[in-house]
Amino acid sequence: MAKYALSPLAPEAFPKLPVIKGARFATHAAGVRYKGREDVMMVALDAGTTIAGTFTRSATRSAPVLDCQAKLGSAPEGEAVILVNAGNSNAFTGKAGVASVQAITGAVAEIMEVSPNRVFTSSTGVIGEPLPHGRIIDALDALKGKLDENGIENAANAIMTTDTFPKGSVASFEINGKTVNIAGIAKGSGMIAPDMATMLVYIFTDAQIAQDDLQALVSSFTDTTFNCITVDSDTSTSDTLLMAATGASGVEVSHDTKAFREGLHSVMLDLAHQVVKDGEGAHKFVTINVTGAKTNAEAKVHAMSIANSPLVKTAIAGEDPNWGRVVMAIGKSGAAADRDLLSIRFGDILVAEKGWVSPNYREEQGAAIMKNAEITISVDLGLAHGEATVWTCDLTHTYIEINADYRS
Amino acid sequence: MAKYALSPLAPEAFPKLPVIKGARFATHAAGVRYKGREDVMMVALDAGTTIAGTFTRSATRSAPVLDCQAKLGSAPEGEAVILVNAGNSNAFTGKAGVASVQAITGAVAEIMEVSPNRVFTSSTGVIGEPLPHGRIIDALDALKGKLDENGIENAANAIMTTDTFPKGSVASFEINGKTVNIAGIAKGSGMIAPDMATMLVYIFTDAQIAQDDLQALVSSFTDTTFNCITVDSDTSTSDTLLMAATGASGVEVSHDTKAFREGLHSVMLDLAHQVVKDGEGAHKFVTINVTGAKTNAEAKVHAMSIANSPLVKTAIAGEDPNWGRVVMAIGKSGAAADRDLLSIRFGDILVAEKGWVSPNYREEQGAAIMKNAEITISVDLGLAHGEATVWTCDLTHTYIEINADYRS
To answer: Residues A49, A164, A198, A392: which is the catalytic one?
Structure first.
């Protein structure tokens, strides 16, 4: 299904995801844009399912994102449906885009016999072209007929655009002797590109949890997972994370339930990492740890400045232990730094300290670290106790190839 | 002298720069890092010359930058000297870097018989390696012996690193029947890279102007010229602009003198554009105009978000009129925008308006514009009257080649 070669950072296989009772999946080849592949997926969720979500903060966000945001937080009355298409993002499509969302959600509500307020849609693909929503509506009967609690892997495939592998993650754990499952899928490889990537994430659990508790958890964990990854510093107009808790396990949890918190965080972090590992042109997966900053927020500013620097990212692509570019990225970030206090490590190797290269550092040590597929760069600013970790990938010729291709 | 192929955006020839009375130039092959080329330049400035400057705001700025900043604004007593080396930036070199600056400025002061407070140095090149300042000091006698009022073009060549052409600009105009000249040189091609680029700019005039007036003009014009260009969003630890007014024309000017203001602004803008045109891997020179923003500052945030977006820059490299990526960059910038009010033009072609593609726009029109070597992208936000213009280049395979090369 993928147009580009499989990412060298791809996992060996799609994980075996558990059935989430109360959630059924269907996929269909609606021909929105792609030929010969499934490009629409539907999730039907049992009555009582609570739904939370987080979305792009872009000022130019898409019509489906605005529609989802307006519906979140309404009472979990009756069944709910998530409907997603690949191939067209319905973003920057003006009033026609709003009309497309209304047409689709109205048709879903009618065919699935749910309230329009319980229909959530996402679209990913080319920006600025009218969404041929008729093709999606024409597929609804077929989708309804195919709904299956085992369909989540197909759903992960149907939402791909420039992704080179489908992304899934699972956490299963016991609470009071009963098993609770969390299963998530995601797509995304550049932060955005017309005809290309947007990040979409759907997570399902059979735990029973109040909507406001679920929203609080999802918002909090988004800040330290999906909001801490960057492929190219560009932010989609369509990024969407939706989480549905069906309650079918009969296990009640809250935002304080440790096992649920840990399981959900682990699924979100795993999916976030998979998005980076499928970053357009990525050959290296890079963890940036910043400690010793004035605040956690300032640590993240530094970490993102390093993670988004084209010079740092091309150095990583070239397997060059170029710590001078890390110094540069810290200097330009705008957050506080004292040149003579900061230290830099590549992996476990102390590269620079006290404003200069470490006296024991030898270039071969750094060069050896840079040959790895997964690299950790750690910066300690020596100022206070603020810290942050972000994840990124290298910037390679393949990124240019993917994104400098003419669209048509 | 250039390691890389001449930029396709290079001017046909180095401009003929006028003699600036009171300023003499010398260059020498000191062997700081490069072999077989001149890599040090000296400017000797007559007594009474006023000097102004602007510098990188990086928190990790280099020792010579900090030294220059400390000296600016002191009284113009006696002669002054500017000394610049290429090959080593003396950045992130700890206490040894400070000692190198002191050794060089002390030696220059002694040999040239000037106050150390009137010696300004810059260094550009690899980060984090000790500056072999002895080689520079050894060259001072030779430099002193070569000083020549016609040496400015050689100086422009001696300060190049990854530059593919030397950069010069001139403005000559009459004030009260007397000719005033401004001549400037610059180097820079990436915002920074070890062993590579830093932006250095030196401008000379025979006008007579008070230091605070000169500083006010230089600071103000820097904001709308050099601070409005971006090659790769990365900011050097060494960026330096120094301006020297010898007064030798006998023409007194102030920050209000229209001809002087216009001439200086034109030289600064021309040099800034030349830096972009020599941007690492640049094949296209791109002007981004943003109007209708809430404030000028917000207009610049939007313009820089567009200019720095890897997806916008790769689209330009691919000659793809991909206005969806422009929408994305506006959306992510953090400054105010209303999707349904903004309009986008490529050249004179109205591409998008009122939140969607313009009804009369045809893709061929945009595609034709994108084939040009110089492209203007204009965005009107439709909110208020804030405006800004910035300049950038495309992001090509050559940028990756230059920057993913292993250093050694």
So the answer is: A198
Number of residues that make up chain B = 408
Distances (CA, A) of A305 to A228, A340, B192, B222, B235: 12, 19, 14, 24, 11
Range B285-404: architecture per CATH: Roll (3.10)
Q: Do B309 and A337 touch (CB under 8 A)?
A: no
Q: CA distances (Å), A81 to each of A64, A105, B165, B234, in order?
A: 14, 9, 60, 45
Domain edges within chain B:
23-277, 285-404
Please count the other Cβ atoms lying within 10 Å of the Cβ belonging to residue A338: 12
- Contact of B280 with chain A, judged by CB distance below 8 Å, is answered with no
Strand A285-293 relative to strand A386-393, pairing: antiparallel
**Distance (Å, whole) CA B187 – CA B240:** 10
> Cβ contacts of residue A180 below 8 Å, gap of 6+?
A172, A173, A174, A205, A206, A207, A249, A251, A253, A259, A260, A263
The whole-angstrom distance between B194's CA and the closest CA on chain A is: 6
User: Which tokens hold the place of B361?
Assistant: 């726009």
Q: Quick check: B196 and B402 in contact, CB under 8 A?
A: yes
Tens digit of each residue's pLDDT (9 = 90 or more) over A4-45:
788 888 999 999 999 999 999 999 999 999 889 999 999 999
Question: What is the identity of the amino acid at A42?
Answer: M
Distance from CA of B354 to the nearest CA of A (A): 7
The per-residue pLDDT for range B91-130, each reduced to its tens digit, is 888 889 999 999 999 999 999 999 999 999 999 988 888 9
pLDDT digits (tens, 9 = 90+) for A248-275: 999 999 999 999 999 999 999 999 888 8
Query: Which pair of structure tokens corresponds to residue B2?
Result: 């250039």
Q: Tell me if chain B has a CB within 8 Å of the CB of A58.
A: yes
Give me the residues of A, 97-126, that contact B with CB < 8 A: 97, 126
Q: Rounded CA gap, B56 and B198, in Å?
A: 10
pLDDT at B408: 40
> What is the distance between the alpha carbons of residues A2 and B326, in angstroms, rounded to a whole number?
26
How far CA A319 is from CA of A283, A396, B29, B191, in Å, comes to 10, 11, 32, 21
Q: What is the ipTM of this complex?
A: 0.78
CATH 1.20.1250.20 fits A23-277, yes or no: no
Question: Is there a common fold for B23-277 and B285-404?
Answer: no
